[in-house]
Amino acid sequence: EIHIKEPIEKEVHPHLLPGELLLCEASTVYKYMQEDGSNRGTYGKLVCTNFKISFLDDDSASDDNEPQFKNKIVGENDITLQCVDQIYGVYDEKKKLLTGQLRKYPEKLIIYCKDLRVFNFCLRYTKEEEVKRIVSGIVHHSQTPKLLKRLFLFSYASAAPNNTGGRNQTVMFETLEDWREELERTKGNVKYKAVTTNEGYRVSEKLPLYFVVPICISEESILKYEGRGIPIWCWSCHNGAALLKMSAFPKEQDDSTSQMQKAFLDGIYKTISKPPYELLKMDDLSSSLPSLQDIQTAYTRFKQLFLIDNSTDFWATDVKWFSLLESTNWLEIIRRVLKKAIEVAECLEIQHTNVLLIEESATDLCCVISSLVQVMMDSYSRTKSGFQSLIQKEWVIGGHGFLDRCNHLHKSEKEEAPVFLLLLNCVWQLVQQYPPAFEFTETYLTVLSDSLYVPVFSTFFFNSQHQRDTNKSGESLKTQSGPFRFLTVWDWSVQFDTKAQAFLNNPLYAEKPKPDKSQRKTARFKHQRQLSLPLTQAKPSTKRGFFREETDHLIKNILGKRIGKFINSSDEPPNSLREFYDSWHSKPVDYHGLLLPRIDGPEIKVWAQRYLRWIPEAQLHGGGTIATAAKILDLMEEVQSLQVKMDEEHSQAVSGDVHSVPMLRNSARLSSLFPFALLQRQSVKPALPTSTWKDLEDEDDLVKRDDEFVDLSGDML
Asked: Which of 86, 254, 486, 717 has the largest CB neighbor count within 10 A?
């Protein structure tokens, strides 16, 4: 049975960006809703452009039900071509992966997205010619290899008005001055220098135009092996110890070449081990961390847990949630990466030792570890502009191959690996463990991960600064000569209005205290630490190994406990590291000093907002972090309005702009899926023919008791 909503009669047209062209369309396409298995849905038009796949129904034409957190570029029924992960066709109730040329066209189309949305379209009522056009068009434009210049990035840059926008104080690291200022900020300019050796890319196309090396390194050394074997500066600690990275020599070399390279490296190490430099510790990340292939395999398994087709699938997999989660190995990889960052922090902070990270290209795991260490040790990197500058420095200018690692051109799956997503997952662990230490929110990180697939910004669509610079110049599509004007993702006003941008800023950020009040401020932080979950194992229930939190609803993100994974002690850190870790955690947190993530077992959690936001069954009605945020924002709004009244009464001018905060009334009506999805209908647990459900029925009292604590809409504050 299909519940039919009458086909739309009024014509709806897609909203096209500058440079966006309509390629194909199909009318009378039926889009299923995902909330239940009842086949409810709506009719509309499915279109494919050179930028996105879009479903248009009669609601698309009206702005009555406008979401508070609306993206101005990508709507809720839009999928950018780079965001398409896999496309399946359904033939006689059997799913088949669609690639290349099609001989037979499906009756249903399922599109899995890289941001974990799932779209189900029924094509039974669509004209055959339109079905052929739309299916082959979508498959061709989203799945087949393409040339770099065919990316929508170039169409948009050539057609959009020349509006450079604001940079939000983000340091872009495109000039020598930017590097010199960063050296000065970190007091690294005594021992390190910014060099211009690579101007015109005469050393290497993989290196940025400008970078920083130890003062004692000569220009001849940099030129000798195209920058390989040269320690490149990342950051300097307050005590003078520095974090460096180096691109290793290829392992397969003939003996004479190997001997020459070894002698060259020995000379470099001797030079930077003498005063004024500290001792040097080398860390080959290719041997101490998982390979890129392992990371890709783990993430591929992990994301399958969240690409849910329907309600029945959700409940079926939920019974095996813990074993499925553990088998992916994704949380273990996050733990290992965080542990490595703690090791590096200990060398810099306690041992006053320089750390040299070594990797084949120094543009993958080097970027992850160096960024994490800076987020942990430098409070500037925990501000919004500081974090954005860090991503520019280590990833965008540092030469991370976004084009290959995200497989934007569909050229080689062998090069694909979610390295940048791994960093965001690790930073999220810190954000949720120490919220007041960060100026940005988890919503900011989620939106940043989504922006990986929006080819309106150049930030995540090149492999190196050289590739970006060479493609920036040249003829634009309108035969106007001159460089393309690419947008940077850091101008958030392109995607969100001021009201929506408020969700990206943390209202409870503990701003850096003034020096004369620092002691009093530090004392106040003691109580904040106690808000974190205790580091204890949940007691297993007698019912088939489920934890007591396994309630009737089986909501996957209740207090984050279900998502924690227990690690046995076989991989314990070395003694000195364990002492450093335990000693730091025994003291009150200074939110502007060193931050160490808690990495024992259940502390490593799934980033619930990013991975569960499209799954109605996993929502907390009137609960989750958003309910807390709603209360806080309401209070802030009240305080601000009172402040304005007081100023008016005293006839004083209001100093500065009053920051606008979103109006979040009736927070109890929100769910934990907000702001990405509106409140969904309560999902009904199906009667699965398993004894597991019967075992859980006895826990009704526990459910009711737990729910009293889960509802955050009441006396939370």
From this structure: 486
